[in-house]
Specification:
heterodimer, A: mainly alpha, two-stranded antiparallel ribbon, 15 helices, 2 strands, B: mainly alpha, 0% strand, transport (chain A), MetI-like (chain A)
Amino acid sequence: MAAVQDSAVVVGAGAQVRPAAQGRWASIWAKHGAGYMFLLPWLIGFFGLTLGPAVASLYLSFTSFDLIRAPEWVGTANYVRIATADPKFAAAMQVTFLYVVLSVPFKLSFALLVAILLDRGVRGLTVYRAIFYLPSLLGGSVAIAVLWRQLFAGDGLINSLLAQFGIEGPSWISHPNYSIWTLVVLSVWQFGSPMIIFLAGLRQIPTDMYEAASLDGASKFRQFYKITLPLLTPVIFFNAVVQTIDAFKAFTPAFIISGGTGGPINSTLFYTLYLYQEAFGNFRMGYASALAWILVLIIALFTAFSFLTSRYWVHYDD
Amino acid sequence: MTDAIMSSVTAPSSAPLGRRGPLGSVLVHAGLIAASIAMLYPLLWMISASVRPEDEIFASTSLWPSSIDFASYLRGWFGLDVSFGRFFWNSLVVSVLTVIGNVVACSLAAYAFARLRFAGRNFWFAIMLGTLMIPYHVTLIPQYVLFLNLGWVNTFLPLVVPKFLASDAFFIFLMVQFFRGIPRELDEAAMMDGCGAWRIYWKIMLPLSLPVLATAAIFSFIWTWDDFFGPLIYLNDMNTYTIQLGLRTFVDSSSTSDWGGLFAMSTLSLVPVFFFFLFFQRLLIEGIATTGMKR
């Protein structure tokens, strides 16, 4: 620490020689200027692409705006319509919640199960880990959504496989009761990245805890319940929050699989898809802005709720 | 490869629940192998479908084509008014520019946050962290209006310029964490030798930060390559389409007629991502494990 101060003094003294001649501003610039120079691109981006647009978006949400004429102030009309007179909003909400509630727990359970199997020093760990991670990496692309659409079509691969066992599968994609499951399975298939985070978390658990427990005669199952699970709660919490926010924002698979419609009968009308339709299909930019803010509010409420309840079940050792 | 050997050597000590007996080990491997097959089956089936003769595509659930025929690739490549070569090129341009933008702009900001002292640093750092939590939906529509008024729709500018303004704050955060781990003595020694902030950034920080810069670059590339939403909004002219939009057009225009071509182009569209995965698997997995980066 002393060395740090010493060198700071030396540098400070050296720097003071010149600015003295150029005045106060020059000395302020010499002290703080470099930081702002390096920060400049980000600052421009922050004001121009984040803060400015966020404020504009809030304003637009109280207007009727079709991109051609100037925005027209309508007060809270957009929000009132969303809350009371928009069946598609209600449908989109329902579909999105259903998707979150179905996909996140399945995905995390698979991720945890596989991570535990892999954690016990399995030979060929890297190969398995790579195989399980690959779909997560490819999953966001249109190619995978296209493939999925074909797998689950009425005459697709899944039904051909089922037929070999004498089961006649439904037309998964064109039946409103099943279409959401197609998307859930796609999401669960991509359990790779939470799995890797679980694996990293499992590595942190000290092995002597298990040794002590097994000396005391605790069964494997009991060890899992009493040691692994509690010590893993911070990682479970992290994965759950990240995956849930992600699920709220899902777009590409629903768009490709339903051909952009959210059908059949709105059964795959994800919230973001509805937002897209309103903004870029119907050019109701004001209304879509209101939808965007509602989504932000929902995600914020969910996150706040998770953090508030986390103190009752997430175990942090300090 | 060495990792695999290492982990099997160190297995007993890192095995928290103790070693399994031979039977347990066989069961675990059987389960893992079955799961691996289930995971890879759809992908392998798609690749196999892309080289099958047309009439055979849906006839079998087997992964082995009776004969290999690359006609689907030719039909797919030229199946639209604009060839897939154009879409690949567009995707490549957008992805490479995005990588450059992210690495340059984010590392500049990260250096300021991690190493320079200036008034308001903590304030701006807190703001930067705050932007990580804002979903893109909030800024989407005004940004669109802005880029439309600038005449940037149907160009790559709306997809690329924000990256040069460090709009992916996540990478800033990642780099700040890494930069903080580099010994300060190095900067101080350089300062004593008369180096300014700029030279320290360029000559010391960047060369020592290649792992984090590479991680950011690879994830940038893959995410941009896979991005569908951005191009969907900003690109309407088929000559500017990226590979993802090209594929989507192919689905729409040839609904049921040319599945072979569609699978061939889908397979090709995954090749760059798969290539990165193959060569940088370690880096990608470490990136996920240590930072929780999604996807």
